[in-house]
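re: ur question from earlier - yeah i can do the single chain one, its not a big deal. heres the input i used so u can compare w yours
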Amino acid sequence: MDKTSTHLFVPIPHEEREICLGANGSVAHVTRVIRMIQGRWKLPILFRLYADPSMRTLKLKRDLPGVTQKVLTEQLRQLANDGLIERIDFGELPRRVEYQLSEMGRQLLPVLIAMRKFSVSHLS
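and the output i got, formated as tokens:
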């Protein structure tokens, strides 16, 4: 390692650096999770679904003032594709669809709460 390349320095034994760096390292996994929750409405949707076990799209739209139907639909689709929420289609007419957290989405809650605690403890 070049002595001026300090961005590659990881304070763990050389053999364990792949835990942090590389294609399967921590950076890749943390970046993946951030991508899953990135977006103006994804966190509000997730927290709303933490509070209520199952919700219809219209109720979510009412509870998230300012979100458009198009953006809400896109964000719900992305969250479902990433496995954080589940879309339940009841196959009824008129159409009835509800969203709920998946098991993976429920497992994310302690991480988000830890992030909140970190933020609160580091206020300027």
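The mean pLDDT is 87. not sure if urs matches, ping me
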